[in-house]
Amino acid sequence: MKTAGQYIESLRELNTEVYFMGKRVRDLVDHPAFRPHINSASVTYQIANMPEHHAIATARSHLTGERINRWTHIPQSQEDLVNKVKMLRIAGQITGTCFQRCVGMDALITLYTVTHDMDRALNTTYHQKFRRFLITTQAEDLMTDGAMTDPKGDRSKRPAEQHDPDLFVRVVEKRADGIVVRGAKLHQTGATNSHQILVMPGQAMTEADRDYAVAFATPVDAPGVIFVFGRQVNDSRKWEGNLDQGNPRYGSVGGEAMIIFHNVFVPWEHVFLCGETDFTGTLVDRFASYHRQNYGACKSGNLDVLIGAASTIADMQGTLKASHVKDKLGEMAHLVETMYSGALACSFHSTMLDGGVAYVDPLLANSAKLNTARYYPEVTRLAQDIAGGFPATLPGEQELDNPRVAGFVKKYYQTKPEVDPVDRIRMGRLIENMTGATPIIECMHGAGSPQAQKVVIQRTIDWQAKRQLADAVIHAAPFADHEGPELS
Ligand SMILES: Cc1cc2nc3c(=O)[nH]c(=O)nc-3n(C[C@H](O)[C@H](O)[C@H](O)COP(=O)(O)OP(=O)(O)OC[C@H]3O[C@@H](n4cnc5c(N)ncnc54)[C@H](O)[C@@H]3O)c2cc1C
Q1: DSSP assignment of 269-337
Q2: Over 80: is that where the pLDDT of 481 sits?
Q3: Ligand 1 centre from 344 Cα, in Å?
Q4: Burial code of 203-215, b = ≥16 C-beta within 10 A, e = fewer?
C-alpha cells in the first residue's frame, strides 16, 4: 500500500495534459488550485496506514491474499460493505469535504461484477482481463477515476440521435490490437489527481447505440486524454491567501474536471465491455446503488465537521445555551444520523451476487442518497442560521495584516475576552465554504439527480403488495372473542 506521501509523489511522474484558466498546468502537485484536492485524496492513503483505522480502511484481497487499501477492494461480505461505509465517514470527518476516491472504487466493484456476468452468459474473456487489471490496481494502490457522466446533449434524445455523435463516449474504430474512442466525460471528481480512468456507459444502451456501449480503462496520461479543470465559487482564494479558503488544506468538493477523449487508443486488454448493450442497464444500476450507498456516509462525515463548527460559533457568540440553538443543533445531528442510517441499512440488507460479491440493497441505497440530497442543504441552512450573517460579509484576510484596520477588525469581531477573533473568523470561513453552492450542488446531482433515485424507488417498490396489505386490513374479519387483545 502507498503512503499519503508516496501517492502525492507518484502524481509527479504522470505526464497528464491538464488545462486550467486557459493555461496548461505542468506542476499539478504544487499548483494552489489543485493541491487541496490532492491533499484530500491523500487521506484515503493516510488512513489505511493509521493503526486506529487500519482494520476498517484496509482489507485482504480475495485475488492475491495481500493486505490492500479498501479503496481498491471488492466487497466479499456484508461486513465489507459496512466497513466501506464506516471508512467513508472517517475520511469525511478528517477532510470536511470530498476525498474523491469512491467513484473509482465503485467503478472497480461494478465492472468486476458485470464482466463476471458477461463471461458467464456470453463466453467472453472480459472478467479474466478485469481481474488482471484489478490485481495491478490493488498491488500498486492506484487511484481510479470513475467516469460515467457524458455531456449527453439533448436529454430527450438517445446517444445515436444526438446532433453531434460524440456527445456520448463511443468507439470510432476497432483494430486488431484495440479500439479507438472519442467523446468526453464531465464533472470528473479527482480525475486530474488519479492514476487511471475507468470509463463506463452512463445509461442503458439500445441496439442502435451499440458503439456507445463501451467500458475501458486508460492511464490518465495516454495520448489524446485531455483534462479541463473546473472552476468553483471563490476558488481564487486558493492563490490569494489561506484563511479565506475556509478549508485551506482539503478544499471544497472534489476538484472536478472535464475529460476529453480525442481518438484515444485502448488495447483490448483494457476493454471490459464493447457492444454488449444488454448488460449496460445492469451496469448503470449496480454502479448507482454502490455509489448512492456512499453519500449517506461521506456526507455525514462532512456534516459532523459542520455541526462542530456551528456549535463552536454558537459558543463563541454566547448563544449555545439558547433553547432554539440547542434544538437546531439537535436537528442537524438527527438529519445526519438519518443519512448515515440509510448507508448502513443498505449494507446490512445486502445480498450476494453470482460472482461472490456483496451487493447493497438498491432500494435502501437510493433512499439514502435521496435523503442526502434533501438533508445536506437543510443542515447547511441550520448552520447558517446559527452562525449569523458574518460568514457572508467578512473582510478579506489581508486586512489582518493591514496596520490601519487590523486592530479594528479583531476588536469588532471579538465576541468575548476568551474568544480569539481570528479563530472566529476562521470558523466563519469554514461555514461559508461548506454551505456554499458547490457542495450543495454536489449533494444534489453527484451519484445522479434526485429523479434518478425516485425512478429506482418507484420501480422497485411492489405497489400491488402494498395495496394487498391495505386491502387485507380493511377486509380483516373482527377478532373472535377468544382471539381479541387482552385488556388489563
Ligand atoms: C460535484 C459533482 C461531482 C461529480 N462527480 C462525478 C464523477 O466523478 N464521475 C461521474 O461520472 N459523474 C460525476 N458527476 C456527475 C453526476 O452524476 C451528474 O451531475 C448527474 O448524474 C446529473 O447529470 P447532469 O449533471 O448531466 O444533469 P441532467 O441529467 O441534465 O439533470 C438535470 C435535470 O434534468 C432532469 N433530466 C435529465 N434527463 C432527463 C430526461 N431524459 N427527461 C426528463 N428529465 C431529465 C434531471 O432529473 C434533473 O432534474 C458529478 C457531479 C457533480 C455535481
Answers
A1: GGEEEES-GGGHHHHHHHHHHHHHHHHHHHHHHHHHHHHHHHHHHHHHHT-TTSHHHHHHHHHHHHHHH
A2: no
A3: 25
A4: bbbbeebbbbbbb
Q: CA torsion angle for 467, 462, 458, 168 (degrees, to 10)? A: -160
Pocket test for ligand 1, best of 449, 454, 457 (most atoms within 8 A of CB): 449
Q: Residue 478: its pLDDT value, please?
A: 85
Cα three-residue angle 113-47-136, rounded to 5 degrees: 40
Kindly report the pTM of this predicted structure.
Answer: 0.96
Tally of helices (H runs) and strands (E runs) in the chain: 16, 14
Q: Identify the H or E element spanning 364.
A: helix 362-387
Domains of the chain: 4-277 (2.40.110.10), 283-462 (1.20.140.10)
Substitution site in 169, 187, 370 for ligand 1 pocket (most atoms within 8 Å of beta carbon):
187
pLDDT tens digit string along 345-376?
A: 999 999 999 999 999 999 999 999 999 999 99
Q: What is the pLDDT of residues 221-272, one digit of tens each?
A: 999 999 999 999 999 999 999 999 999 999 999 999 999 999 999 999 999 9
Distance of CA 331 to the CA centre of its chain: 24
